[in-house]
Amino acid sequence: MVAAKLAGLLIPLMFAFVLNHWGAVSAQEVQELVVRNWRANHMKHAQDWRDNTAVLTIISPKGLRRVREGRRFTKNYEKEGIDYKEIIFMTAPENIRGLGILSWTYLDKTKEDDTWLWLPSLRKVRRMTAADGEDSFFGTDLTFDEVTLRNPEDENHRLIREEKWQGKKCYVIESTTKKVPWYYTTRIWWVDKEHAIEYTQHYFNEEGILFKTLEKKWDLIKGGWTWNLWDAHELRTKSQSLVDIGSNGSVFNTGLADDLFTQRTLTRMR
């Protein structure tokens, strides 16, 4: 009788220990996967990288197209407090030529990025805040938060299942934003089990309604992964935005100069 009672007490405790043990390991593995994905998106295998030309196409619900072109330059530091610096600017059409954004991201992820927006029509540099991250990226269905690639620490992550995406073995991750209020509450995304590159993301609002999808296509270039196409669908407005840098559109390790990533350069980019 005593043995039976002891067994009745021990079995639930052992079961709870196993759940807690494996839950902790799973959470750690998920966090490591998210960091690997973040590093892949930032081309951390390279000292610096740039795209040749990115073509942004905004497609209205009626099929009307607006086309814009831009360039992106990034340099990874990972020293002296700086993680990386990045500058993005538009080259066409003429009415937005020179419009650009400069950002410095720090190794201390509790420190907010320094980000500046150059408005050539006003001849003005405007300092951006974290709250501006939910704004549209130059009129597209993407946000600055998505284009400048949010930090892993901005969300809570958990693995919800494993499944294939277009034949590729993936982990399905649920990430809940820590920012409240924000333009989304949760995103669910499919990330390659081996390479940690994501293929698609689904964005949900606070009511749990899916309102946007974002797919990426990737190339393997010189030992590192780089995305070559973003495809965003805004389900509320039924609009679509494409960012196409083409196959092999990224160039690595060209020795980008430090003075490229300054406000002075930002105001002179054409």
Description:
The protein is an alpha+beta fold. It has one domain (37-266): Clam (outer membrane lipoprotein receptor (LolB), chain A), CATH 2.50.20.10. Helix content is 18%, strand content 45%. It has three helices and 15 strands. It has helices at residues 2-41, 144-147, 263-266; strands spanning 48-51, 54-59, 65-79, 82-92, 100-106, 114-119, 124-128, 155-165, 168-177, 186-192, 198-204, 210-221, 224-234, 239-244, 250-252. The chain has a 15-stranded antiparallel beta sheet that branches. β3 (65-79) and β4 (82-92) form a beta hairpin.
Give the SSE map.
Layout: H1 2-41, E1 48-51, E2 54-59, E3 65-79, E4 82-92, E5 100-106, E6 114-119, E7 124-128, H2 144-147, E8 155-165, E9 168-177, E10 186-192, E11 198-204, E12 210-221, E13 224-234, E14 239-244, E15 250-252, H3 263-266
Antiparallel strand pairs: 1-3, 1-15, 2-3, 2-14, 3-4, 4-5, 5-6, 6-7, 8-9, 9-10, 10-11, 11-12, 12-13, 13-14
Give the mean pLDDT.
90
Q: Any guess at the CATH architecture?
A: Clam
Just give the CATH class. Answer: Mainly Beta
Q: What would the CATH topology be?
A: outer membrane lipoprotein receptor (LolB), chain A
Radius of gyration: 21 Å
